[in-house]
Write a structure and sequence with these properties.
It comes from Aphanomyces astaci (Crayfish plague agent). By secondary structure, the chain is of the alpha+beta class. The protein is built from ten helices and six strands.
Length: about 280
Amino acid sequence: MREPAADASSRSLPAKRRATTKKPAKRVPDDKLDLRRTQSKMNQRRYRAEQLELMGRLQGEVASLTKDVARLEGRVGPLQASVPKNLRSFDPEISVANEYFRLFAQGYNKHSLDPKNVYQRDFLCSVMQPDLEFMGALGLEKLFTQWGLYTTLFQSVMMTCDKSCVVMCEPNIMLEGNARMQLRISRGTIEALFPHLLHNERLVQKLIGRVMVLSVLCQFTFDEHLKVQKFSTFANPVVALMDLLKSAEDTATAVSGCLLKENGELVPVTRQSLIPYGVTV
């Protein structure tokens, strides 16, 4: 069936002309616009009120949870003490040893105002007893002094721990860490720790600028409060010098007057010899 002529002609009109035939949008009355604005404001106020209420409730829950955590943390100590040592985890002790090796991986920062120095000292004071047993002395000062000597007398210090593990549970927990210290030797090192070699320029030149790798066994003995009561170190300077010099004769000469002891303690030749390096012992 054929369409009416009028309909066909209207379809042939250009798109723009057809668009102009659309009816204009109805104008929203002012009273309806005011109503919508009022409703929008009320919705926003209600939303803000709900958010404030939610925030207050969450803050109250956080405060309550904080108290619960503090109460539970207070129970951890007695619970750990009640568990036989051979059954409980040794994560706290292992964490102390790992942090020690991490903090002193590049030696001891001697500048008292440096944040790293503050952190190193605060860490040792927090995990070790004030009357720490170390290298035949009581107190932390001997440990700080030895670290100061290592950092000063060697051109550079690098320390890594190959592995650590608990080796004893009774009467106290003992953890051992196998450390490797990479110590770069300078002329100042030889003057303070190998003074007997100063007349042997051949051997001096063989040592200066070289890195001595010193293996050190570190033993951390913890008390019932999980603090280090005793810290023992065992070093082998003979093997370190032999690996460095590659000569039994030169090693024997170097070891004969070496002031690096088998417990890793540095005993410089004299106090006067340390003045040029800014160290007091």
